[in-house]
Amino acid sequence: MGKNMTESRDGQLPVARRTFYTLVVKRIFDILISGLAIVICSPIILGIFILELIFHGWPAFFSQERPGLHGEIFKLYKFRSMTNEKDENGDLLPGEERLTSFGRFIRRFSIDELPELFCIFTGKMSIIGPRPLLPKYLPYYTDRHMRRHEMRPGLACIPLKPTKTWTWNDQFENDIWYIENCSFSVDVKMIFEIARETLAGSEYRVNDTREEFNGRNLHSNAKEVKTHASAGNSTSSR
Fold first, then answer.
1. What stretches of the chain show up as alpha helix (H) in DSSP?
2. Does residue 236 lie within any of the structural domains?
3. Which end of the chain is less congested by CB atoms within 10 angstroms, N or C?
């Protein structure tokens, strides 16, 4: 781990909030909401699965290892938004060439995220929590930012106040704020914000242009390359 450059004023590392809600109710809430959503959305999930086979072929799902609670690696699943087309050398074509119009649509409205409901139901994820990123980022986190794994990762951890920038540091600090202040009211506010963004659609999610975190670009502004905190799926940093 790199030396912590952003410790709390008292020099202590952040501690995840431990309350009856975070220890018991939040998990029950995740099971009930994700289970209900799976039942309600099952016709949509089946329909998207069929369309995936038509537009992108087999497999219909994109899977990737991500660090979860306490950094434990789990498999994250999404609907694919790209084909597996390769060049004459057998290498995958660039993502922008493999991204289909159907893939753009499901990204824009976060439909590709629906399989993550099963990750939530089985306890690998939560509805709200720090976004699970790539395992290769783990060596680059400061001790402080590594604490973002002290709660289950979520579909999103949206800042509740507008931000002028969205750097990796902004995202990690927002995650730290969340684990320290998690409550029922905070989760409800974030869920409504997720619903609002999903219904509105997001061009940010369509263009997977965010620079991967390498430990040296902590303060690079992702908004300059059109991305966002809740961005989520294609190949790497989302």
1. 20, 26-55, 95-98, 101-108, 116-121, 143-146, 168-181, 184-200, 203-206
2. no
3. N
**Of 123, 211, 196, which is closest to residue 158 (Cα–Cα)?**
196
Residue 56 DSSP label? T
In a domain, 94, yes or no: yes
Angle between helices 184-200 and 26-55 (to 10 degrees): 20
> How many domains does the chain divide into?
1
Q: Which helix (H) or strand (E) holds 156?
A: strand 154-156
Is residue 67 within 8 Å of 129, Cβ to Cβ?
no
Residues 163, 150: Cα–Cα separation, whole Å: 24
Cα–chain center distance at 158: 10
Question: What six digits make up the tokens of 88?
Answer: 């004459």
Q: State how far the Cα of 5 lies from the Cα of 150, in Å rounded to an integer.
A: 19
The rounded distance, in Å, linking the Cα atoms of 190 and 186 is 6
Q: Which of 225, 210, 206 is nearest to 102 (CA)?
A: 206
Give bridge partners of residue 8 from the DSSP assignment.
none
- Assess if residue 175 is contained within a domain: yes
Residue 231 domain flag: no
Q: What type of residue is 75?
A: K
Residue-range definition of the domain harbouring residue 63: 20-225
Can you state the angle between helices 26-55 and 101-108, rounded to 10 degrees? Answer: 170
Q: How far apart are CA 64 and CA 133, in angstroms?
A: 10
Tell me the whole-structure pTM to 2 decimals.
Answer: 0.84
